[in-house]
Design brief:
By secondary structure, the chain is an all-beta fold. Helices cover 0% and strands 69% of the residues.
Length: 108
């Protein structure tokens, strides 16, 4: 995974969302208008492993979490092609709900 700033689009069977992350030195930090994303990554472009947790920082009840709860830990596997990384995985708290994400690199 190249270090840098990424736009992220994600979805589950319960809905879709988007946000932004910054990847550097094996760490991922980011969020959207109501949730922070905090985690780590490792591996090569052919198989990237990510473990990332969510944490709500905006109490606005109009923002509904995709997993029905504010705090989840996702385990993801992905591959990189050019400036795009595609991930699939699940939340530890809800292992039957598939999570998919596409990251598009914006800049260093």
């Amino acid at each position: 995974m190249q270090e840098g700033l990424y736009g992220v689009e994600f979805h589950t069977a319960h809905g879709t969302g988007n946000g932004i992350i910054y990847a550097t030195n094996g760490k991922i930090r980011g969020g959207n208008s109501w949730m922070a994303f905090i985690g780590n990554y490792s591996g090569t472009d052919s198989e990237i492993t990510v473990k990332v947790s969510t944490q709500r920082y905006n109490p606005d009840p109009n923002f509904k979490p995709l997993f029905g709860t504010d705090m989840v830990t996702l385990t993801l596997k992905g591959t990189s092609i050019g400036d795009t990384i595609t991930f699939e995985g699940t939340a530890l708290q809800l292992p039957g709900v598939r999570f998919n994400a596409v990251l598009t690199r914006i800049c260093d």
